[in-house]
DNA sequence: ATAGGGTTAG
């Protein structure tokens, strides 16, 4: 951020004043030239507004314009008239400028300042800047006019550049220009510059100005430093409606509804009346912090108090309405928007599209989008997100392509939306490709882009891509963000790099519940119960209360590792000590926990004792356990329930058939297969991904189109001969098709996870680990084969299936043969 | 002259 005040002139970094505890300990003193000092705890700190030369280019003076020649004394009046009349055209301003140059009025700061304001009001910053360059010794008034104007038009970068030029000219800000500079720092979240400016205001005594104080409060609120804002507020001698409103909005932004409302109502006690801007600040703050209902209620109350909502209130309340799904309210606001003619406001249109999208109204959403005709980036972005929400991925991509095609300004939200759209709808490789395109287009990913992209890397275990995204976040300084951090933990865990996941976790400067839960989930996925339990206790020691998600991960980790006793006691303590009522997913974990330990009857009675209807996950947990322990009678009960709950899930039929096969009940196996055939169910095609040399390869079961297929099968045959020598028998129970044994063996050979392992062995250097992801649960035969391969080929092999991670090493698997 | 309020991505 410091680069915004460019290196040519800036507050000297050595004199950076830390403000965090400065409010009462700084006292300004007179400093030597160009230095302003302040005293902190008896120590003098110097503040250096460093001077650097600015090369001036002086524009030629216009000597005459078409013989226009009013007497010079009439210009001040004319100028006054022009600046009062907002309708004055740009050409009138230019003529005035020319005449002023001719008559020398341009040299008088007071008149010149008017000219700056006139140009700025016409958004002609380049003209204003040329005017600035033409002045030999620009004065504070000229800079003030320009800085205030660029700040007013939210051109904050320009504001700070001008500020730096002002310092270069040896000019110090006064109370009239500081608020605009501070506003720019707030808008750009330029924390360090803002704090230095605060230091300057303290040192110079300008911090006592109510305008400066209010803008500083807003600055700290915007930069998420509410405590600093409050300290300032407390020290204020005279508070007004602006300072109260800024603080109230600050609490609203933090989601502190109680304090926000308290401060907001205190305004009245102290004799002030909240105005439209005060109300808008509350609505926007509540919307930003996710207090959607409070935002909507504020909007309603605003009207009850006799205020009329303007464009700002509407574009702040619409997203809140959308999140609540209040279609009725949304439609009313839409009607109001049309009635008062706000349907041309770009922000409002985007907000309307967003609202309809969130309320599930794809048609209305598209209607608003089409009605604009010339859609801007915001509207397109809202549309992409809305289409993605409705699963209309292709349409979303079309809108994005149109946006690109029209040469509209290619922004980070659009790219992020479309990346999110892909990674959320199983188009992981597309997400990675679009991310690459985005970089090629010169758009820099931010702290939202990375968490949208990382799941795509994790889904297909594209470790190199994930690492590249990690590097990006380090370079962009966003790796400390809780969303980025959690997404990194998840990505590394999904790619099998549990230590790297832990490393990211340990390095986080701050953690919220999601970070802890992600780490817990990562250990659970890897079946590392000991570590999960450690994190669980660590979390509580750090003051973070676990929620029901934390317990799901903890219980799942215990069940994966066979920690039956521990899991059971955590389950009991959940409601007893933590006041969290067990949900269906917790029961599923307990059923798995008991089932794995062979306590199938106990698991079944647990299901019967559940305070609500067991769902497919619970019965699925029982059925899996029955398969593990070859329990046919309970397996049939569980399968029967599952066939009712999800008749079209082929996985359940396959599990039951596995149980029959293990007992040699071939007739029953046939029966299950016939049911599947009659229902038109087919086993989902198996699919595995492996990253080799930075490219992700997808392998389908029985894929004959693979160029290396002959080699792969050859290698697989040779491995299988070695395995048979070592006593391995292919487990054809896993083949459901009604074919000869020989053919069954052949089908097993075609399983995608085996293909991926062998593909990896053929294409990577000896001894390097292999990371594979599968779209189904790993097949039992493949599990046995990969265990063997890990020993025979001396490779660590990581296979993530839909259930968990399998880490094969030296002939064993981390799951202990339970999955 | 100057301060407080807006959409779209997780």
Describe this structure in words.
The chain has about 800 residues and is mostly helical. Among the domains are: about 410-505, Serine Threonine Protein Phosphatase 5, Tetratricopeptide repeat, CATH 1.25.40; about 510-580, no CATH class; about 605-680, Alpha Horseshoe (Serine Threonine Protein Phosphatase 5, Tetratricopeptide repeat), CATH 1.25.40; about 690-815, no CATH class. The strands form two sheets. Strands 5-4-6-7-8-9 form a six-stranded mixed sheet, with helices on one face. A hairpin with a 2-residue loop joins strand 4 and strand 5 (about 695-700). The longest helix is centred in the C-terminal third of the chain and has 17 residues, at about 710-725. The radius of gyration is 34 Å and the shape is elongated. Mean pLDDT is about 85; it is low at about 1-40 and about 45-75. The chain binds one DNA strand of 10 nucleotides through helix 5, helix 7, helix 9, helix 11 and helix 13.
